[in-house]
Amino acid sequence: MGAPLRFLTGITTTGTPHLGNYVGAIRPAVQASRRPGTENFYFLADYHALIKCDEPARIQRSTLEIAACWLAAGLDPEQVFFYRQSDIPEVTELTWLLTCVTGKGVLNRAHAYKAQVDKNTAAGVDVDAEVTMGLFMYPVLMAADILMFKAHRIPVGRDQVQHIEMARDMAQSFNHLYGEHLVLPEAQIDESVALLPGLDGRKMSKSYDNVIGLFSPRDQVRKQIFSIVTDSRAPGEPKDTEGSALFQIYQAFASAEETQKLREAYAAGIAWSDAKQLLFERIDREIAPMREKHEHLVNHPQELERILQAGAAKARGRATPFIRELRQAVGLRNLADVPGGTKKDKARASLPAFKQYREADGLFYFKFVDAQGRLLLQSAGFASPKEAGQFIAGLKASQALPQDGKAAPAAGVSSEQVHAALKELADSGN
Ligand code: TRP
């Protein structure tokens, strides 16, 4: 068994979730959280919400609403890490450490910032009008969210891929300067998740005003479903499933068998009102039990608060020791600490070392670094930790690099330097 693969998802706490969010994000994430051999982090990105919203009551209300939605949808806070970003002070601390290794030019290229600059340019106003440093720094805060918990994979939409790449770059810069501390994350785009059409057939989205609320009152959901746009075919006339928003929404909730039944009903000329009633009942069957739980949580905020506090304590169990390690790495240290500590630690700390880890591709890798943490050798992926370990044992024994492409010296490192470091390690008896 290898180390668990860690997945991390940030949930922006603005707005009220709709069925499109449920089918496209919440439901698949809740299912994914149950995979064995994984650790799953879900957090309410309330610091990020501050960038877009300056109404305190709305910030509080959205956080409550959205936390209740995720728990009602089946997320088990015992099984995952479920916390509020602003409860983890280590995240803001890491944001600063990353800020110091991030080029301003990199952030100049971030899509959200650039879009505002382009808009300002087109309007002939100052390029930075309406640009807060919050907007500009958005990618750094997001990188801190990810790197804080050593997440391997970040399930996101295409619009977020640039942010994950920036997080990777920041991790690389940090590691280059201070040694291998941060894990490089990878975006994971799930193409199989269906985009749910809205009432008018376009993608369901708040900005199109075509949504069906996830936990709106039942009669309101029914009314919304009855307002889905259909064609003018009369009862008895066969209907097309192709391009039918009603059919697609049904499919997102129904089993293959149920979907086939509706397909046959379409061919047999089901009345639109009957099809809408079927859709309403099918959705309600899935949502009704969750609606009760949602209502309970929204009406008992102290219960939700307790869950989030427990989640924060669990998450800080990881964050607190890690930020201590990172502070140490950059030199924010107790002045009385002699570098290296005990004589034995000191001897070990001044030696080159192998570092094994697992990447987001599921393979096992190692790095060989010198005493200062600089990369000497980078391996390719191995199928198991055992194979990686055997390869390392071979390197230690031969003190030379086999020409099989399984490991290569880092840029600017010669094979003599690798050999010297291997020899130094062997001579020390490690
Ligand atoms: N920016 C993400 C969004 O708008 C939310 C988010 C914040 C996030 N921090 C994150 C997502 C870290 C993944 C990982 O959807």
From TrEMBL:
Q: Which domain of life is it from?
A: Bacteria
UniProt xrefs under Pfam families: tRNA-synt_1b
* Keywords linked to the UniProt accession: Aminoacyl-tRNA synthetase, ATP-binding, Cytoplasm, Ligase, Nucleotide-binding, Protein biosynthesis
In this chain, ATP is annotated as bound at 12-14, 20-21, 157-159, 196, 203-207
Please state where this protein is localized: Cytoplasm
> Catalyzes what?
tRNA(Trp) + L-tryptophan + ATP = L-tryptophyl-tRNA(Trp) + AMP + diphosphate + H(+)
Q: Which GO terms describe its molecular function?
A: ATP binding; tryptophan-tRNA ligase activity
* Residues holding L-tryptophan: 145
Q: Name one GO cellular component term.
A: cytosol
Per the Swiss-Prot or TrEMBL record, what residue ranges does the short sequence motif 'HIGH' region cover?
13-21
One GO BP annotation of this record:
tryptophanyl-tRNA aminoacylation
* Short motif 'KMSKS' region, span: 203-207
Its Enzyme Commission number(s) read 6.1.1.2
Assembly description: Homodimer.
| Role, per record | Catalyzes the attachment of tryptophan to tRNA(Trp).
Give the family from UniProt.
Belongs to the class-I aminoacyl-tRNA synthetase family.
Q: What is this protein called?
A: Tryptophan--tRNA ligase
Query: Which species is the source of this protein?
Result: Ramlibacter monticola
